[in-house]
Write a structure and sequence with these properties.
binds zinc ion, 8-stranded parallel barrel, 447 residues, alpha/beta, disordered N terminus, 14 strands, binds acetamide, 15 helices, 5-stranded mixed sheet
């Protein structure tokens, strides 16, 4: 089926969807003296192929300026189905127009998922129908129509928006609207006064579950993604559930000796809410220790939960456990994929740096992406504590996000740092032309 046929300067350009091609993002680009022919398994595949064509034109910019393009045949499909970035409008709100700009640039590198970390201690950034108290007193949140606008804009670029609401920790904003949903502990006011100190929703309060059933239902109907991310990270269990009379009663009813066991009950109910809406849950992978030695999962993650590995040093263990337990895995190891970390020593974010380790471009590129197992893809995170606006997000993301995009798209045996490095100048000149803030990785051009 011919979708489009054009002629200019005698060169034929043909875009064609060929549903007999396998894999929905599979495309084939052929340029020869008689013309340019882009075939794709779907319109999405053609869109991905167009990005490659643009990169070729910018990579050989002198030929492009002469109106020429070298003959080439590229038959291409992604190694991994999910290639994601994450923005954190909870810490510093990101207006819709800036999210759209961010999506524009993601699309150029064939990212197909943007996760939005919508709720945290510092803010609740999404309108929830029937619960205006969650966003009351602020104009820094996405209304339902904002969300529709972001989703539609992303969908036009074949990018899925995954919503994240982080529970049971990271809930100070929720608990300031609903103080009755926190644990009953002596120093709850002191704990609540410090962002990131780790107040938690009470595991023993039925109203927590009924409110979240509404929230999950609302997110499920707003976001077409099959996934809802429920966080599950950095829960200060010993400072909350372990000290709360109601949680302790629940522990003894169930015969638990550790408060962490309540995570099974807590997420048991939350995951039912997700499943009842026909959705799948994603959680940050937590183990029984935050450093090695760690032996097992913090809770009994059901095998239908997709986990994200993230803590420095724990990815080999998360890979081993998810493979053994049948959980799909997304790779966001801090050492390679935390794009809020500085790219060089001394290149620190101006805002609120808590002592983040350095993650160079080459280190991002060297992320290990085992194919043919349970790894679904890669995610670069831009945690927002030190990212005050979208220009800072761009500066932190690029060019490292290009390295992660390549790790998600290209089979491990085909990746080459030298090849990547040689393609950087063309890619960076395009970002410059687009007015995108990025960090010049001068250290990689030195030898
Ligand atoms: C995380 O970085 N707290 C998932
Ligand atoms: Zn409690």
């Amino acid at each position: 089926m011919t979708e489009h046929f054009g002629e200019g300067n005698g060169v034929k350009t043909r875009l064609e969807v060929d549903p007999s091609m396998s894999g929905k993002e599979h495309y084939r680009l052929e340029v020869n003296p008689s013309g340019l022919h882009l075939t794709g398994a779907s319109e999405e595949a053609l869109f991905r192929g167009m990005q490659t064509l643009d990169q070729i034109l910018w990579g050989d910019v002198a030929a492009t300026a002469r109106g020429e393009i070298s003959p080439v045949v590229i038959d291409d499909a992604p190694a991994f189905p999910r290639r994601a970035l994450m923005l954190d409008p909870a810490r510093h709100f990101i207006p819709v127009k800036d999210v759209k700009r961010f999506i524009d640039i993601m699309a150029r590198y064939k990212f197909n998922v943007l996760q939005l970390h919508l709720t945290d201690d510092e803010g609740w950034r999404v309108e929830i129908a029937g619960h205006p108290e969650l966003t009351a007193g602020s104009d820094q949140y996405y209304s339902e129509s904002d969300i529709r606008e972001i989703i539609g804009y992303a969908a036009d670029r074949y990018i899925e928006i995954v919503p994240e609401t982080d529970i049971p920790g990271h809930t100070r904003a929720l608990l300031s609207a609903h103080p009755e949903l926190g644990c009953h502990i002596a120093d709850s006011a002191a704990l609540a006064a410090v962002p990131g100190a780790g107040v938690m929703a009470c595991a023993a309060n039925d109203s927590v579950y009924s409110l979240y059933d509404d929230i999950i239902g609302c997110l499920a109907s707003m976001f077409p993604s099959p996934y809802i991310h429920l966080g599950g990270d950095e829960a200060a269990i010993e400072r909350n559930w372990a000290l709360c009379g109601d949680c302790r009663r629940m522990m003894s009813e169930r015969g638990y000796t550790e408060a962490a066991s309540l995570m099974n009950d807590f997420f048991g109910r939350m995951l039912s809410s997700v499943r009842s809406r026909g959705k799948k849950a994603i959680l940050w992978c937590e183990l029984d220790n935050i450093y090695m030695p760690a032996e097992k999962y913090l809770m009994d993650y059901p095998s239908d939960v997709t986990l994200v590995t993230w803590r420095n040093g724990l990815t080999p263990k998360c890979m081993e456990l998810t493979a053994a337990n049948g959980n799909p895995l997304i790779m966001a190891p801090g050492e390679h994929a935390y794009l809020d970390y500085p790219q060089m020593k001394g290149d620190l974010p101006e805002h609120n740096n808590w002592g983040m380790p350095v993650t160079t471009l080459q280190r991002s590129y060297s992320i290990d992406m085992p194919a043919n197992g349970n790894v679904e893809g890669v995610m670069g995170t831009l945690w927002g504590e030190a990212i005050a606006d979208v220009d800072r997000a761009f500066y932190m993301a690029y060019p490292r996000a290009m390295a992660l995009a390549e790790a998600g798209w290209t089979l491990p045996e085909r990746r080459s740092w030298d090849s990547f490095r040689s393609r950087l100048p063309g890619a960076l000149s395009k970002l410059m032309q687009l007015g995108v803030s990025f960090r010049v990785p001068f250290e990689v051009f030195g030898d």
